[in-house]
## 1
Amino acid sequence: MKDALVNIRRVLKVGGCAILRDYGYGDHAMLRFGRGHKISECFYMRQDGTRAYYFSLEKLAALATEVGFEVLENQFIEKETVNRKEGISVPRLFIQSRLAKI
C-alpha cells in the first residue's frame, strides 16, 4: 500500500493531485467474511485467494502524509448496490481521498 503511494507521488509534478477510491472500513463486503478469512486487522482473503484491505480515514491519511502527500479531502462515500436478479440491495462504503504532492 505504501509502495503504491510512493509510485504515484514519484510520477506527479509538485502541486499535482491524485484521487483515490478504495474499500472503506465497515463495508458490507468486509462484514460478510467468515471465520478463517481475516489475515490481519482490516485485511481479508476472499475465497478465490485475492486479498482486500478496508481502509479507515486515519490509516489512509497517515500513509499519505508519511510518503509526502498533503491530504486535501478524505471521506467515506456510501453507495447502494442493487442486484435485481436476486432482489437484494446492500449498502457499500468506500473511502475517497484527494491528495496533493507537496
## 2
Amino acid sequence: HQHADHHLGSIDILQAREKVFKEANLDVPLLYFVVTNRYRYYLTAYHHSFEPVLGNIHLVSCEDLIFHTPKNEFMQEIPGDRLQLIDPALKKEFLDYTSLSGIETCKAVHCAHAYCVSMVTGEGYKFTYSGDTRPVQRLIEMGKGSDLLIHEATMEHILLKDAIVKKHSTFTEAIEAGKEMEAKFTVLTHFSQRYAKMPMLNEIEDQENVVIAFDNLTFTPANIHQIRLLYPALKAVFKNDYDAMCDRSQIHTYHTDDEDLRNEQIEKLKYQYEGKQENFNKIHEWRMKVKPKGRSAIKRPADENKDYEDLQIPSTLIKAVGGGGGSEKKLKTEENSEKESDNQDNSDAASKLIQVVEKNADNGENGGSVAEEKMKAGPSVEQPKKKKKTGKKAGPLVDEIKDIMRNKYLASQLLNVVNRRSGESMKEESEESSEGDRKIEKSKNSM
C-alpha cells in the first residue's frame, strides 16, 4: 500500500541495482515489480517527468492477481474455475522467470489500495505475507497450509480497541490467524514504535511455531526455529526498556473490559508489591545494623562569624556611592537595616558594613565644601588637571567587595544598599534640575 514506511526507498533500490550491473559491464536483467495500480501510476510519472527508473522493469498490478469467482445475474458465485485479470501469457512468463508455480493477492483491511499476497515456489514452498491489515478471512483461505506466514502484529492484545481504530492486528490476532491458516511457522513483524527495542513477549514466547522479526534478521527454513532461543538474551540486553514496557502494559490492563484479565493483573501487582515491600524491610534492617551510634558535630569555618566592624572600604566603592569627587549631596543614613528571618547574624553583620560605608562616604563628602570655598574666592589661574581613573566599572567593584568580605550574602546586602542610594541621589538631582527649569520658564513668562 501507499503508506510511506512501505514504499519509500524503492526507487533508490531500483537505481542502485541498475548501477551495480552497469559498473560490472553486465546487462541489466529483467525485474518483475508487483505493485498496486496507484503506485504504478506514481512510478510511471516519476520515470517520465524526473529521471528514468523503469529500465528493464516490468510492472505487475496487484489488482490483476486477485482471483475472481464467476457470478450469475443475481451476483451469486458459480462453482467452477476462478479467474485472474492478468494476461495468461504475461503470467506464464512471470512465473517461469521467477521460478514460481503460483501467486495470488487479496484486499487487506487497512487503507485504500492495500493488499495481501501469497506465492508458491517451484519446489512447493508456500509463503504468505499479510502486509498491514486487520484479520481477513480471505487471507486465511488464500494462505491455507502455508509453510511460512509473515503477519503484521502492531500492538498487544490489551490495545485491541486502538488496533481496530488504526486497522492493524494485535499479537494474539496474528498468532490465531497463523493457527487457523495451519501455517507451519508464523513470523510477527511491523511492531509499533512503543516497542522501540523489542516487543512484549508474554503473548508470543509460549508459542512454539511463532517467532518475532527484527532489523537485519536473516533465517532459512532450517534455522527459523532457533529464533526463539534469542528471547532470554534480548530481555537481558534491553532489560530497562522491557521493564518499562511491562509497567505500561499494567496500566492498560485497568482500562480493559475483560474482568478476569483485570483481576488477574491486580493479583499480579499485589504479589509484586509484597515482594518489593519485603526487600525494603530487609534493606532497612541492614541499615539499622550498620548505622553509626552518634553523629560528629558539624564544625563551622573559623572565619564564618568574623566581626566585620573594622573592615576597610576601598575608595573606588566610596566614589561609586557618590561620596568623593565633590559631590554636593550627602548620603542619607539608613534608619532600619534589612533583616533576614533565616539568618539574623548575617543581617547584623550587613548593618555594620552599611555603617562603615556611610562613615567613609561622609568623610569623602568633605571635599565638596573645599570646592565651594574655592568658587567663592573668585576666578583663579586654572592649573592643568590630571585625568584620574574613576574606577566606576561594576565588575571590578563586585570582585573587590567579594574578596574583602568573603561572604556572598553580605556582599549582596552591601551592593543592594549602594545601588539603592545611588539611585536616590540621581533621582534628587533630576528633581532639582526639573525645578530649576520650571523657575526659568516661569520668569520668562512673567517678563
## 3
Amino acid sequence: NEYKSYLRKMAIDSYIQMKLYTLTKRQFLFLFVIFFSFFFVSIFIGWVGPSVVKETEVDKGSPIKNGVVALISPEVSNAEQQLWLQIEVNLDASRKEPFIEKTTYSIIPIKLTLYSLMNGTKSIINASPASHNRTLKCKNSDSTCDPITVLHLGFIKFPQYYVEIETSEVLMNGSTIRPIWTTYNAKFTEFELWFRFIFIILSLFVAFYIFQSLRKYAVQDWSIEQKWMVILLILVMLYDNPSFPLLLLVDISFISVLDACFTVTFLSSLLLFWLCVYHGMRKAERHFFSFYFLKLALVGVMWLVGCVILSWCAVNEMNDPSFSLSQDQEGFLAIKIFFFALLGVYVLFLLFLIVRAYSELHNMPYFDVRLRFLTTLTFIVLFISLIAVIVRFGSRSILEDSSVMAITLRWNNGAEFLSFYSLFNFYIFTLAFVYSPSKSAMNDRYKDNPASFAMLSDSEDEIYRSGKKFVYDDEEESM
C-alpha cells in the first residue's frame, strides 16, 4: 500500500524532469547568491541614480484676500509626468484662536479653478469647479499648518498653469499660503524608461527560453509550475508596462487605468499562483469547479476591488484636478476594510494549503524539494516586500486620509522604484530557470529517479521506506 501510494504521488506532475531536480546544494546556494547580488546591485543603482521628485516654490507666501488666492505654477514639461500642488497655510495671528486653542483640526472648503497659461493667455480647464472640504491640521505651538494637497494632474498638457483657490473668507482672510509645486524629475523619468525597457527585454528573453524548452513536450506533460511560468512571464511584462511611454505622450484616462490594472493583475496572478501550486502538488485531477473556482473567486474579487479603486481615481482626477477619495471617505473606508478582510482570508487559506502540503509531501522525493524551494524563495520575497512597505509607510496608518496617501505614494528615490521592480522580476526569472526542463528531461521522462537528486540525500538510504527500496518498474511505466 505504501508503494502504491508513493507511485500515485509520483504520478502528479512528474512527467518532465525540471532543473530543480538536478541541482546540487552548492548550485542552489550559488543560485540564491546570484538572486541577491542582482537585487542589491539594482538597489545600489537606484540609490545613486537621479532624485525622483522636484519641488519648486514660486513664491514664499501669497496672502488670502476676500477668500481668494491666485498661484502660478513653474514651467513644466511632459517629461515631468505629473503635477501636484500642496499649500501650507500660515494663519493670521488674530484668527489663530478658533483653529488652535479649541482644536488642532478644522475643515475648510476649497474650490479650485484651473487655467492653462500660454504666452500670457489664460484658458480655463475646469469650467465648473467643485467645492471640496479639506482637513487643516495645525500645531498648538505654531501658526503654520501641515501642507494639504489641493491639486493633482496625472498628465502635463500645458507648459504652465494658473490656479485660483477660493476658501472661507471668514476663517482664512489675512492668512498666507505657501505653495509647494511638485513634479517628477525629468532625469528620473528617463531613468525609469530605460529600466522598464531593460526589464521588458529580459522578460522577453526568459519567456523565449522557456517557450523553446517546453515546446518539445505536450502541454499535458508540463508540471503545474511550468504552466504557471508561461502565464507569469507574460504578466510580468505587463507589470513592467510596455505602454508606459504613452503616459508621457497621450492625455487619455484609459492609459492611466491600463497602467494601474497591469500592476494589480500581475500581483493578483502571483496570489493565485501560490494557491494553485501548493494545492496542485497534492491533487492530480484539477477540474475547474473543484480546484480553480474558489481560488479564482477569492483572488478575482481582490483584483476587481483594486482595479475599481485605481480606475475610479484615474478617471475622476482627469475630470476634477482637485478630486480626492477622501470626498467619499465612508465608502472608501468600507472598501478598504473589505479588501483587508479578503486579504486576511487569503492568508489563512494559503497557510492551510502550505501546512497540508508539507504534512503530506515532506517525505516524498521531488515534492519535498519543490515545497522547500518555492516556500524559501517566496518568503524571502515577501519578507523584503514587507520591510520595504514598513520603511516606506510605517509611520502612517493604512486607513489614513487618502489625500495624504496621494502625495506619499510616489517613490522617494530610485532605490525604492528599482527594489520593487527588480525583486518581482528576478523572482519570476529564478522560478522560470529552476522549473525549466533539464538537459536529460527527454531521456528521463516518466523515469525520474529520486536517488539522483542530490539535495534530498547524499546517499540512497533516505529513499528506503519500511526496509524496502523504491524502484521503478513496469507498473510505474504504465502509470
